[in-house]
């Protein structure tokens, strides 16, 4: 009997998970329909609340049934099964009240309707996490491809006084805050810190709301994963070492964005151990690379060399020498440049400068002077 009970529970759990998976697929594949369902169901709940808030002797049973049945049907259509089941149970309570209109049955119906509301509220919370708050707009949402918005902006820009309007449209609908591209790297740093037994605080952004055009910088921004991994792996010291040096246990990484004279400047600064020029020189000597005529600042620029690494052994987080050179290649492909400065014991600053791009026309990519 125990085995049969476990099997039944497992089957019920599997069915619940299947329905949840279908609900998530509906959320992703039918966003417009889901948004319409939410708007309509909110209105239906409002009508149901008004109906049940009255004295039960004045209830309109047919109106209450229509509201519950509408909620049940809509919920089932999008696999919101908890709300659908709750609405079905509320229909049963309504039938009991209609057969015997006692205060006890009325209270039971009100409680069942509240359970429907709670189940639907849980669905809304899940929806918000998956689709974001925009799915809850009381207005109908209209989606456009970025290319369609660009075409519209270009057409408006040709009007006699349309340039300003076109620019506002670009900034509002085609650009995204700079920090949004780098916030996921908090997770990257946290994973590296866990592996290395280190501690790192969340990224501190300066001018993170600077609007940027994703298509212009997406490849470059993807390569910055190496900068954040290196900041934790090579830069930040272990907590005990940091405390000995008078630093906070958790390392700090700051990212700043600046748009100036047609240039986008991005700086990633950590408060770690810094880059030791002597260690770089030792590596260069081992590879037979001449460096004696170079200053310490020039020497540390070799961190951008292909396959350059200061690690003797390859680990999960570093050692293959592929990383900073990827940032350099991506920046130069945009007509930009990279530079690193560092002070031993205090930290490192990576600076990347690329052309400021507001649209995807080829002429919008000026070259940055060396």
Describe this structure in words.
The protein is an alpha+beta fold. Helix content is 56%, strand content 11%. The strands form two sheets. Strands 2-4-5-7-6 form a five-stranded mixed β-sheet, with helices on one face. Strands 1-3 form a two-stranded antiparallel ribbon. Helix 9 packs parallel to helix 11. It starts with a helix and ends in a 15-residue tail after the last strand. About 4% of the residues have low confidence.
Radius of gyration: 30 Å
Report how far the terminal alpha carbons are from each other. Answer: 79 Å
- What's the tally of helices? 15
- Helix and strand run: HHHHHHHEHHEEHHHEEHHHEE
Shape: elongated
- Going across the biggest sheet, name each strand in turn: 2-4-5-7-6
Low-confidence stretches: 312-321, 362-367
- Percent of residues in beta strands: 5-15%
Mean pLDDT: 85
Structural class: alpha+beta
Number of strands: 7
